[in-house]
Design goal:
mainly alpha; YheA-like fold; 117 residues; 85% helix; 0% strand
Amino acid sequence: MIWDKAQDLGRLIGQAPEYQALRRAESTLRDDKETVAKLEQIQTLARQVDQVVATGQMPDQATAESYENAVHDLETSPVGQAYVVARANFEKLMTKVNQNITEGMEKGATSSIITLA
């Protein structure tokens, strides 16, 4: 029963306008060669920063600035901005979904009525 409800919830989330907008934004992002190159640069710089931080050090200023500039360029580009907005809206939806699930769990845990369906 829980798995069926989870499938139903997943189907409904997949049909939500927020999810559809995110999928479109992701597709547009993947199709834009300049944006893909910027994402690859960000990932490379993020790995470099992570490796330095893992050793207990701070990244050099040039690497940190390069990373910040690349993220800023991505977020301010039309394609990047559309993705950021779509992602934020989807995350808001999922936060509300999770809050409702938590409320349901709390009600279920305190309820003396046992339901099987």
